[in-house]
Amino acid sequence: MVRPYTLTGGRSRPITGGLSLLTHVEALYAPDADLVGLQPEHRVILSITRTALSVAEIAARLDLPVGVVRVLVGDLLQASLVSTFESDTTINPPDESILQAVIDGLRAL
Amino acid sequence: MDSGRYERRAPLALKILVAGGFGAGKTTLVGSCSEIMPLQTEEYLTDASVFTDDITGVEGKSSTTVVMDFGRISINDDVVLYLFGTPGQDRFWFLWDELALGALGAVVIADTRRLADCFPSVDYFERRGTPFLVAVNCFNGEQRHSPQKVRDALDLDAGVPVVLCDAREQESSKQVFVTLVQHVIERSHRLPAGVQT
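Above: the input entities. Below: the structure tokens describing the complete assembly.
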């Protein structure tokens, strides 16, 4: 067993902030990027975020605490290897047509 | 709305919280509708929680790992529903504020054998103004109390739906979430335009 924050060199706060559970992370196309110095977990995040994933999903897939994932994603942001963007959760409640689509989608499960 | 975000094809993320006392059926409800994943959050104990946490003997401990249920339902290419089972213990409530921020709504699962366990959840969502409903989990088809009795016991506002469900059954669980979304729509009709919760 590895203590989770060993992966972050003991850092518990990301270099850059503002990563919520539903912030989406997407790997940038960077063929010439210098990946030396990245940890295996950084590389896994890069590979699974070729299509955008939320911070919560990354944490669940890697089975790592959300706090650790925030630090690791912060590193990748700093290195310009990923971009992040917020899902539009601020419109609350969302448009009724969207909510109706949710109801239809749930019924179709 | 920033239309640029849609160009990046970020799906609209809608968040539904599933709350209720320990053992009331949160994991079962999330799992019956979604691929379920455990989500670890390691959080720092805030001053508020330090007072409520019994930290005798672990005074050096400043963070705690909480595992909650996390599920995802892809509605279509543009909309994804995220289900978060809130941590059951009262002492992890400091985690809820981030979860509740921007949440579409919440399901409070009630186990009628231990109805009092869901008082704190009801209280929390009432105070925050988060739309919620109470889902009475009828274990083994057993129904000990009518929805009206549960409503009275929890002193719910007339507009808050109370539904019976069997959290193990997908059809039943789906109906809980459908009712919640319908409640969100109805509630938005009642609120004057421009009022956001």
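Note for the figure: Helices of chain B lie at 3-7, 26-33, 47-52, 96-100, 119-128, 147-154, 170-190.
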